Q: What sequence folds into this?
C-alpha cells in the first residue's frame, strides 16, 4: 500500500492552492523544511514569510494580514502552535473570528527522533476549547489535499492537525471531504470504532482482525473533530 505523510501532502497542496488563489500567504517559524511549506516558498517567495523562532509573533502577524483580505496559512510544530502561541490564537485570531488557517505538523506522539519535548498531546483539547475554532485532522494524503482546499474556502479560523509519519493512502481522487461530516468507511453493527488522523488506518486494520473473529465493526473517519458530526456518532451508538 502506498504511504505518504500528511505534512508532505500539505506542502504540495499549498503550491496548488497558491497557483489559483493569489490571496494565499504562508507564514512559518523557521521550520519550512520540516512543515513542507518550503515547497510554497520555492514557488511563491513573495508570499512566504519566515518570522524566525517566534511562534506568537507569527500568529499575531497572520491575524494582521487576515484583516487585509488575504488568507494566511500558519505552520510550525503542533506543540509550538497550540502551546507557545495559544494566547495569540485565542485573542488575536479566534476572538475576532479572523480568517487564519493554523496548520501545524508533527502532531501527537509519533515523532520518531524529535522526542518528547516536541510531542503534542494537548493541542486538540486546547483548540477545541476555543469558541469559533474549527478543528480538523486528515486520515491520509488525499484527504489532506481535499481538506486544505475546503479550509481555504471556509471563512473563519481553522486548526488542521498534520503528522510527520508516512501513513497509508486510504482514499482516491474521488473522495469527497466536507467540514463537519464524519465518513463511515466500513459497515458493522457489533461495534463502532471512531478514529481520526493516522489512527483511521489502524482502525481499519483492527476491523479486519475483528472480522476474522466474526465481529462486524463500523469504522468512522472523524476528520472534523469540531464541529463534531453528532448525527453520525449517535447513529453508530444505537
A:
Amino acid at each position: 500500500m502506498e504511504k505518504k505523510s500528511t505534512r508532505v501532502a500539505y506542502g504540495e497542496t499549498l503550491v496548488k492552492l497558491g497557483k489559483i488563489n493569489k490571496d494565499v500567504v504562508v507564514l512559518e517559524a523557521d521550520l519550512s523544511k520540516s512543515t513542507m511549506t518550503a515547497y510554497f516558498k520555492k514557488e511563491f517567495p513573495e508570499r512566504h514569510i519566515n518570522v524566525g523562532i517566534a511562534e506568537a509573533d507569527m500568529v499575531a502577524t497572520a491575524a494582521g494580514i487576515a484583516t487585509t483580505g488575504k488568507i494566511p496559512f500558519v505552520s510550525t510544530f503542533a506543540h509550538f502552535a497550540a502551546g507557545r502561541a495559544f494566547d495569540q490564537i485565542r485573542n488575536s485570531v479566534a476572538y475576532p473570528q479572523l480568517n487564519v488557517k493554523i496548520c501545524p505538523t508533527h502532531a501527537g506522539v509519533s515523532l520518531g527522533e524529535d522526542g518528547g519535548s516536541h510531542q503534542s498531546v494537548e493541542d486538540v483539547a486546547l483548540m477545541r476549547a476555543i469558541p469559533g475554532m474549527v478543528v480538523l485532522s486528515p486520515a491520509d494524503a488525499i484527504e489532506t489535499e481535499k481538506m486544505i482546499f475546503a479550509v481555504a474556502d471556509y471563512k473563519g479560523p481553522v486548526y488542521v492537525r498534520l503528522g510527520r509519519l508516512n501513513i497509508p493512502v486510504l482514499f482516491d481522487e474521488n473522495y469527497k471531504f466536507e467540514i463537519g461530516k464524519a465518513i463511515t468507511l466500513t459497515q458493522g453493527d457489533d461495534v463502532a470504532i471512531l478514529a481520526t488522523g493516522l489512527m483511521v488506518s489502524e482502525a481499519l486494520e483492527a476491523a479486519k482482525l475483528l472480522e476474522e473473529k466474526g465481529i462486524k465493526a463500523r469504522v468512522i473517519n472523524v476528520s472534523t473533530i469540531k464541529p463534531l458530526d453528532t448525527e453520525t456518532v449517535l447513529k453508530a451508538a444505537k
Summary: The chain has ten helices and twelve strands. The chain has a mean pLDDT of 95. The chain has two domains: 3-168, 183-237. The two ends are 33 Å apart (CA to CA).
